[in-house]
User: Fold Interleukin from Oryzias sinensis.
Amino acid sequence: MMVFMTIIMVLLRLTCHRNQRVKDSQIQICNLCRDNHKTQLWLSFLILSFLTTCTRADSEIEDLLTCLENLDSTLKESDAMLYTAPLNDVEKCKHMVLKCYMVELIMVIIEEKINDKKADCLRHFNETLTPEDGCPQCEMHSLQNISTFLKILTNTLQKLNSL
Assistant:
């Protein structure tokens, strides 16, 4: 929260001319800024953007966990062997690890011809990921059956959610 207040103070100082600033008890605010509704609107939009960005990642992981719970019984019918990233790789290569998991799950959905709309959440989540450089390719991870794969994926998501 302190970061947001600092950003607001800097923005207010930048939007005011030096001779129009009035010293307030905690921050400097200019007379024009108090009356300028556009400035207030943009500052409000900026604050909401920051708040949305901060909470979005956690809610997406929670949504993905719910999605996996809904698809669990359908996915477990597959006998596929899937590349499974270890839990410790997630700290340095979060997006790449998640991308590997999503690609593998999407492959299972295609091969098993799962036409459930519940699977769209996997495709959507996959589209939001931008893999980091210097991370191992998905094919470098060990092959696991679908049950082990889903168990490790769930543990990985829970770890990310708790960070």
Remarks:
- The chain has a mean pLDDT of 77.
- The first strand starts at residue 21 and ends at 23.
